Amino acid sequence: MPDQERVARSLELYRRAEALIPGRTQLISRRSSQFAHGNSPIYASRAKGARFIDVDENEYIDWVNAVGAVILGHADDAVDGAVKAQIDRGSIFTLNSALEIELAELLNEVIPSSEMARYTKGGGEANAAAARIARGATGRSLILFSGYHGWHDWYQSANYLVDPESGEFPFAGIEPIGVPSELAGTALPFVWGDLAELRALLRAHEGEVAAIMMEPMRSEPPPPGYLEGVQQLARIHGAVLIFDEVSCGFRPRIGGVQAYLGVTPDMTVLAKAMSNGYPMGAVVGSRAVMEPASRMFISSSYWSDNLGLAASLRTIRELERRNSAQRFEAIGRELINRLNQALREAGMAGSCGGMFWNPGIHLDLPEESLRPVANTIFIQEMARRGIHCNMSFKATLAHSLEDIERTADCAAEAFALIKSGLDSGDLQQLLESDLTKEPFRRLVR
Ligand SMILES: Cc1ncc(COP(=O)(O)O)c(C=O)c1O
Fold first, then answer.
1. Alpha carbon of 147 to ligand 1 centroid (Å)
2. Of 15, 165, 278, 415, which is most buried, counting CB atoms within 10 Å of its CB?
3. Which of 51, 19, 14 is nearest to 34 (CA)?
C-alpha cells in the first residue's frame, strides 16, 4: 500500500489541526516535521506496553515513549490501577492531600539531593520554580545554565543572545517572540563539559550568580572530574547547583544521574518519567535552599492533584520492585549491540553508541549535507516496518528481547537501503517523506 494511504487518517487529522491549533501540536517534538512526514504516524489511538496503535490501525514498537515520559511501559497495569483507585477516592480535594507528604518522603529516600519537595505538573514549570527559589534563596538574579529547561520566559530570554541569522535557536524556525527582551542577559548559557568557561563566567559575574542550572548528562559521560568541578565552583561562588534531571532522571538509576555518578547538587528538577506519563513534576533540594520557598509566591491549584501524586508513588515503587537500573542497562546494551550488528550486516558505515538509557545512531556519510536525507530515510523505513523512532532511542521496562530483535532486523533493512542509495549516488530518490526538521537543539551558547 502506498504510505500516504497507510497513514491517511493521521495526515487528515494533521491537516484539520492546522486551522485549529497554532503550530498543530502542543509539544514541538510531536510535530510531524520531527519524523518522516508522509510515512510516520502522527496520531495514536491506544498504547500498551512497548507498543501503540495509530489512528489508521497500524501497530508500532515505540522507541520514543512520550519523549521519555513513559518508563515502565504504556498503560502500565500497576500504575493505572493506583490511579483508578485514586479516582474513586477523588482526583483533587478541597483540602491538602496526604499523598504530598508520602511522595516527599519517598523522594527523600531515592533522590540523593532531596530533603524537601515542591510539586508541579511538568518539567518546564518545575524549572521555573527552581529558578525562582534559587533567586529568592540567594537574593541574586543571574542564572547560568546548560541544557534545555522548558518554555518559560526566564530561560527562553537567553535566545535574544543568539544571532537569528545563525539559526541557533533551540528549534529551527522557533524564535523568542513574545518573551520580554528586557530579560535578555538574566540567564546566560555555558557549554557543557567546559569548566574553564564556567569559571570565567562566574568570575566575570562575581556575586551575581543565583544558580548554575544544568542537565548533568545526556548522551555522553562528563569529562573526568567535570561535575565535581562544577559543584566546587558553585560552592566557592555561593551559587545554588541545580541538576535538571527531567530527561536523564530515573533511567540510569532511580536516583538519576546524581546517584549514577555520585555528585549531589543542591537542588534537582524532576518530571516526565517520575509518574509513567501522568502529569507530575517536582523540585527537590536541601533544606537550606528549599526552605526559603515558604515565603515566595509559588502556588497553583493543580499541583495538589492526587492522580500525579498517586502515579508517581506507584511508578517509583515499581521501578524499585522491577530492578529498573539493571534492566535498563541490559536493554540498552542489547539494543546498542544489535543495532551495531545491523549496521555491519548492511555494510553501512556508522555506529550506535551513547549511554545505555539513551542510545543513538550516527551514520558515517560522505558529506554532512546528506545527513537530513539519510536520517529521514531511516525514520521513514522504520515507520513502514512498524517501528516508531528517530535517531535516538528511549526504552521502557516493557521492551522485550523480541522487540529489540525486530527493531534491529528492520534497521538492517533500512541501513541496506541507505547504503544502496549512497552507492548509486542517488540517496534522494529513496526519500518519500518531507525532510525531517533539524533535531531539537539544546541552547548552550
Ligand atoms: C531536561 C529537560 N528539562 C525540561 C523539560 C521540559 O519539560 P516539560 O516538557 O514537561 O515542560 C524537558 C523536556 O523535554 C527536558 O528534557
1. 10
2. 415
3. 14
